[in-house]
Structures are given as C-alpha cells and as structure tokens.
Amino acid sequence: MSDAGEFVPDTTALPKLRASAAACRGCGLYRDATRTVFGAGPKSARIMLVGEQPGDSEDLAGEPFVGPAGRLLDKALADSGVDRARVYVTNAVKHFKFTRDERGKRRIHQKPSRTEVVSCRPWLTAELAAVQPELVVLLGATAAQSLLGTGFKVTQRRGEVVELPGDFTGAHAVATVHPSAILRAPDREKAYADFVDDLRTAVRVLKD
Ligand code: URA
Ligand code: SF4
C-alpha cells in the first residue's frame, strides 16, 4: 500500500515539510482536491490541534480551519483562554475529500477512509516531531483514531487526558468532538459548552 512516507523529507523544518507536502501523492485524494492543506502555526507551539481534513473553504484558502468550523474553533479557543496564534493547527488528512451534489456544483464533504488516514499519517507524525507539542488536542474520531488507534471511542473518552503512544510519549493528548459536530448538534449551546469544557481540561495539563 502506498502512503505519504516516501514524500516526507527527513527534516523538522516546517517550511520544508509544507513544500514537500504540496507534491504528495501518497493516496488518491490529491487528484480531485485543489491543493494540499498543511498545518499552520508556530514551531514553538505547546499545543497542537488536529482536525479531520480540510473542508471546502480550507481547500480554496490553503489553510486549516478557516471556514465555519474554524470560526467556531476560534471562538472556543478564546473562551478557553487559548491564543490561536500560539497553537499549531493541522488535520489528520491533508487533502479535501468530497462528492458533488446532483447539479455538480456544491462540493459535499466525505469522510476519509481508514486507508487514507493511515496513508497521510506520516505528515502528521512529521509535524509532531517538528513541533514537539506538550499537548495534542484531537478533534473528532478521525484525528483520535489516527493517533490512538481504531479502538479509541471519542464518545466514551472525550475530555480524558491520555498519553500519545509510540515515539511521542511525553505528549499528553485529549480527544474531543469535532467543531463541525457542534454546528450540527440539536442542542448547539450545550454541545459548545461541553467542547469548551474539554478544551479547558486539556490546557490544564500544561505546566507553566
Ligand atoms: N474541518 C477540519 O477537520 N479541518 C479543517 O481544517 C476544517 C474543517
Ligand atoms: Fe498525500 Fe495525505 Fe494528500 Fe493523500 S491526503 S495525497 S497522503 S497529503
């Protein structure tokens, strides 16, 4: 099975990683998407946020979490006392996966397959190695299962502080829901409050 591994340069320089990711063909998703959406934020970040994959707005802008989910995330970070400018924000999968509506106009988000998530993981692990965050916040099941395995159930374990396995021991991780799920929730206010609670719990692990 092909993956992103052969495209990932042996470096911890984020600009080099980002430039190489632009040419990744580690899975089929590069074909229909506009561009690779690599992570963004300072190398010095103590917190890394991981989403699922870029959406329509991110695919066009080339930056993660700049659309509706990103606006909700910005507000939730502010409400948790976190400055987004000091956070590194990325996704488990770097290309937008979508289908078209019947008229072929609107692009509709499709969940990435397990194979695509695993194919793209070398970029995420390269970002982890480069940034070496103290805390990784996993937004939704795709991000959580990319790093914690398919047995990890966000619904049961959201807000729990766990350790990242493998080479990243020492980094704390907290999984929570995806901001898009809050936008769709029947009780949006409660879903938002629970999300902010998880973020607050997560940032408490930072030793200052
Ligand atoms: N949803 C994600 O998971 N990531 C983005 O960057 C935008 C929306
Ligand atoms: Fe490469 Fe990831 Fe894009 Fe697939 S989704 S082509 S692995 S960057």
Q: Secondary-structure map with pairings?
A:
Layout: H1 14-21, E1 47-51, H2 56-61, H3 68-79, E2 87-91, E3 98-100, E4 107-109, H4 114-131, E5 135-139, H5 141-148, H6 154-157, E6 161-163, E7 172-176, H7 179-184, H8 188-203
The structure holds uracil and iron/sulfur cluster.
Key terms for this structure?
208 residues; 5-stranded mixed β-sheet; two-stranded antiparallel sheet; 7 strands; binds uracil; binds iron/sulfur cluster
Task: Summarize it.
By secondary structure, this protein is of the alpha/beta class.
Overview of this protein structure:
The chain has 208 residues and is α/β, with parallel strands linked by helices. The chain has 8 helices and 7 strands, in the order αβααβββαβααββαα. The protein is globular and about 40 Å long. The relative contact order is 0.17. The model has no long low-confidence stretch (mean pLDDT 96). The protein binds uracil (URA) and iron/sulfur cluster. The site of uracil has 13 residues, from α3.
CATH topology: Uracil-DNA Glycosylase, subunit E
- Small molecules (ligands, ions, cofactors) in the structure: uracil, iron/sulfur cluster
Name of the level-1 CATH class: Alpha Beta
The pLDDT mean sits at: 96
Q: Output the radius of gyration.
A: 16 Å
Instruction: List low-pLDDT spans.
Output: none
Coarse morphology: globular
Physical arrangement of strands within the biggest beta sheet: 2-1-5-7-6
Q: Describe the largest sheet.
A: 5 strands, mixed
Give the helix/strand class: alpha/beta
Question: Could you name the CATH homologous superfamily?
Answer: Uracil-DNA glycosylase-like domain
CATH architecture: 3-Layer(aba) Sandwich
